[in-house]
Queue: 2 jobs
Job 1
Amino acid sequence: MPKETKKEGEVQKLNIKDVTTCPATAQMLEKAERDGVETAFHRAATMKACPIGADSACCKHCSMGPCRLNSKDPYGRVGVCGATIDTIMARNFARMVASGAAAHTDHGMSMLDVFREVVNGKIKDYTIKDPMKLEEVAREIGIETEGRETAEIATDLYKELERTYVQVEGEIPFAKRVPPKTLETWRKNGVVPRGAMREIMELMHRTHMGVDQDYENITKQCTRTALADGWGGSMVATEISDILFGTPTPVRAEVDMGCLKENQVNIIIHGHEPNLFESMLESVNDPTLIQAAREAGAEDINLVGMCCSGAEMLSRHGIPHAGNFMSTEAILVTGAVDAMAVDVQCIKQGLAKVAECYGTKLFTTNPRCHIEGAQHVEFHEHKPKECTDAIVEMAIVRFKNRQMPVEIPRIKSMGIHGFSHEYINYMLGGTFRSSYTPLNDNIINGRIRGVAGVVGCTNPRVKQDWVHVELVKELIKNDVLVVQTGCSQIALAKAGLYSPEAAHLAGAGLREVCEAVGMPPVLGLGSCVDNSRILIACAEMVRVGGLGDSIADLPVAGAAPEWMSEKAISIGHYFVGSGVYTVFGVTFPIIAETKFHKLLFEGLEKLGFGKWGFTADPYEMAQLMVRHIDGKRKALGIDKARERVLMDMAARRDLEAA
Ligand code: XCC
């Protein structure tokens, strides 16, 4: 990464245009450097990634090591215990999956805890906002709903979904949603999850020193654990959040740092669990607190989201979103943030220092996540407003005593968000015949070539947002409909791809569908746990028919072009386990051409699963995905239809030119 030399007492200067394509973040990085404030971008420039760790050629699971193998000669030696490179890499990879799955599962469990207490009447501040969805989910997993009270169904649903976590034998409840042929593949390979806790525990055990030392067998449990995340922990998080807080429907909303307002008390919520954010939404609308803000000289209270809880609230309520993972420190540099409240996951410890530099109050709220230097105000689901009211009050005090000049980038982008699986169903099929049939039909007739999920983080090792945006532009140009979640969704929203007008960037076929339905060519589904909406959409595409019998038959692909977290690896692996070709960017933590690498990139597909792919280049990534989609179209015998449409497209172009 090009950089200038650092003088004593100064922050390492970056070539900012090399590290981000987000203009607001760039503006704030320049200011940070003027102010002598360091961010993760600066630390990434001065801290070279460990080359041994990057290749996963290091084992530190016991104190006979840590053992370092040589990634240039991976089979040249083994660890002290005799562990081969394949065992070491498989164990490291599996532990990333275990950690990522644990994060989503613990999040889902928290949602289920709230649901239980709402159902038994102990929590009064939240209610069941979407009883229709409650019934649908209950019906799908075999709970009787006919003529029963919502409370009764909810009690049964709680008991049933609890099995997702604690069950020790059998299959998790949402296995019932998996297309039969995909489920058959899972059963044949012994990877149907029993309960998420059991799978994660067993994976941690098997990757302990001296237990599972066969990379293929480790991968099996790794797949089972990842599936327990996608079809378990994450899916429960999404479904329960929809039931409690409402299922998203399309909503216009603004994204980027320009959502901050100079004359208002600005409060940012950053993290993952929607209950904190929902309560904050109540607090900022409390007339007493609004009055207090006005008395302090503010025009109002401005609530804004970041990262995944932001993406979720953007989808569900149209709350403005200020930016993705690599902008969380940069936004504090505006000096305009009066409080940032965080809960769990993707909260950089570096936030504490930047917040201190600008006098921003940084609050941790979850017992799982304290940060040295941040003020902890614990959030209790039974009395949620105690925490969020207190944070608003302290934000007002900070507003009143703002010490520094405020600089807010005047950049924001309007788009449409909130495309849940349920709404896609309705949007494509209409009120009285809601169905995925039109989607499948348009794929079969070739207007839409296929569907791609582009998701995941941003990472200071690559130019922020650039890989996401270039990849998605390439895909839609090639008539691939893109669905998104998390920080990737925010990257594209900032780039303006969430407006229906962005349809002109799509190929003729996709453009036609978008214009007919009035939708953007890129659909945002929410946060990272909401990747489970993509799984449900895939299952629905199989169920509707015409595109094969299993998810592995569908002309679909996935990508996380700028991933950084272990959760991303778990997500990637549950898509692969479900039958989807999934391409990651940045770097892949496995040595190419080893046996374990071949298993992930080729072998799993032969067993009926999907497979992994890797390239850091967005154009090559698009090519890999489009080629895979075309291969699936060919196997389904619908490639001819596509050719016909291509001719139609050419004919239309001639017409347009005439
Ligand atoms: Fe985190 Fe979820 Fe990644 Fe963004 S996309 S950096 S995991 S906030 Ni979820």
Job 2
Amino acid sequence: MSADSGVAEAAAVLRAGGLVAFPTETVYGLGANALDAQAVARIFAAKARPSFDPLITHLAEAAELEKLVGTVSPAVAVLAERFWPGPLTLIVDRPAAIPPIVTSGLETMAVRVPDHAAARGLIAAAGVPVAAPSANRFGQLSPTWAEHVVAGLGAAVDVVLDGGPTRCGIESTIVDVRGERPVVLRLGALPVESLEEAVGPVTVRPGSSGQPVAPGTLAAHYAPRTPLRLVTGAGPMDDGGARRGFLGFRSRPAGEWAAVEVLSSDGDLTEAAARLFDALHRLDGAGVDEIVVEPVPEVGVGRAVNDRLRRAAATWG
Ligand code: TXA
Ligand code: MG
């Protein structure tokens, strides 16, 4: 249903323990009432998501955070003030009101305020915090259109709010500011450079160790069903032939290819991030034997794009 008219009905579904897929500025989320353990259990079932992979709790307003968790640290307050609503997820202590299933038993909770009118309207109308992972089956490509959600999850979702394509196209940046120096647990739509401008140097440690994890940082994740290979280094590329697809940053490769997607002919990394998963969904549906991908420049949101591409390739490596 449309994200403009369907919000009130979708909020009622959330309150009744149902699952609502909704657009955010990053990717579509699969939401449930975060205060309702049974509703949250349905998210894990719908996604076939392992129970060790914790969810992000979404709030309508930054002011809701203190109501939920009590006083927050100065570092959390600074980042929330600066970047919320927006594609930044912060790690805080899990409040008692949030059942452990949301955080996979962790004593910490990931939380963010999405920068999307339908998402915030939905959460506000439901009147509860909303636990929501990306609305795809575990390990697969993230959804940036409502159609991706329907194709991937179908009947497992009670309502899909259709807000068209998402603006950023890549998930939120996850930052843990509980230590002395902020640690980026997952590269995402908020560039590291923007974070550092606000809080000084940060450590980027997406998934370098086993625990505690941001399992969107599992080495293999975000993968199409078609084998994907990341090419590195310059030099002439082979012809793709009739059975291979290509995902390029600025331009088409020479030679024959069964399917080609170009992320941004202007070389704009923001545009490339916004188009990444949609292009991968299309190549995945093109019936090719292999998707060959060239990385984008390792700067700004390009770092998060390359992170997703490396993990997608690792699934097939
Ligand atoms: O942009 C986004 O963040 C989207 C939209 C829907 O908000 N959500 C999203 O959720 O990407 P999901 O579940 O696909 O990824 C959440 C990531 C996982 O890698 C999870 O392990 C990590 O957040 N995470 C959740 N709680 C955590 C915690 N307490 N400590 C460390 N990582 C956590
Ligand atoms: Mg995900």
